[in-house]
Amino acid sequence: MDNFIDRISISIQRGKIDANSPYPPDMKGEPGADELTREALQNGVAANDILTLAMIPAMGIVGELFKDKKLFVPQVLMSAKAMNSAMLHLKPYFTSGEIKQRGTFVIGTVSGDLHDIGKNLVSMMIEGSGWRVIDLGVDVKTERFIEAVQENPGCILGMSALLTTTMESMEKSVRQVRSNYPSQRILVGGAPLSKEFAFRIGADMYAPNPQVAVEYINSIA
Ligand code: B1M
After folding, report:
1. What is the distance in A from the centroid of ligand 1 to the CA of 43?
2. DSSP 3-state of 214
């Protein structure tokens, strides 16, 4: 198992998507995150181990290198693509669809923010715990969140933000949804947030990771 975990982690850190991908040049022809994740699952490595021991820490390393200017946006984008190619294989394990739907969860990344890997993980896990998920995508304007709440009475609304600058868009969206729909349940998450921030802007809950998000929404279903 360790061998797969290490290789998947390296393929994400290096931005190696699959064997056909020419990037990075020194890994040409080698399997990437796509094939390695498929093989790991076929060899009995648990989906949750692949996610928590390989994929999430690998993106953490990429983030540190990016912060230290040892990696740049195009390389980070390749890592994100490699991560997404691995996530496609995990999806069936987290979204079996066998459970009766508990309700509707609407989620989006807030205006000005294009980061979607964390949001996609949260969607996947929540869908897997029996919810119908409506994913509004990235760069979601306040009006779109409001429209979605209006179209889905009784839904739980989730917002994700990864940039300190877009925490402001989150605040605006939460406050406006709240003023239109005072009893709307709102869950927020994303690396730069804190519980204090979430409560100050009027959200009902802050989830630092998808597990807490799942526990929260299941607790109020
Ligand atoms: Co960007 N980026 N990025 N980036 N990027 C960060 C966030 C950054 C911390 C990197 C750094 O400097 N170390 C930094 C933000 C600094 C800050 O604001 N404090 C940063 C920056 C600066 C930028 C740009 C401004 C860079 C530039 O252009 N100069 C730019 C902004 C673009 C924009 O959004 N307008 C930018 C662009 C990009 C890429 C497009 C290249 C790419 C995104 C690709 C994509 O998402 N499709 C990218 C990436 C990949 C990252 C890092 C490296 C990884 C993010 C990630 O996917 N992590 C990131 C550094 C880092 O996080 N260490 C970084 C893995 C993911 C599983 O974790 O998203 O945190 P995360 O989600 C977690 C939790 O936060 C939580 O659950 C998830 C799983 O545990 N969670 C929720 C998230 N949402 C939730 C919602 C919930 C509940 C839990 O309920 C609703």
Report:
1. 31
2. helix
pTM: 0.91
Q: Which of 76, 110, 212 to mutate to test the pocket of ligand 1 (most atoms within 8 A of CB)?
A: 76
Q: Residue written as tokens 């607790």?
A: 219
Q: Token digits for 3? A: 């061998």
Domain count, the chain: 2
Three-state secondary-structure class, residue 115: coil
Where a domain ends, among 55, 77, 96? 96
Segment 10-45, tens digit of pLDDT: 999 999 999 999 999 999 999 999 999 999 999 999
Do 117 and 208 lie in a common domain? yes
For ligand 1, residues with CB inside 6 Å are: 56, 59-60, 62-63, 66-67, 73, 76-77, 80, 107, 112-119, 121-122, 158-160, 162-164, 187-192, 207, 209-210, 213
Question: Which residue is associated with the tokens 């509004």?
Answer: 136
CA 134 to ligand 1 centroid distance, Å: 21
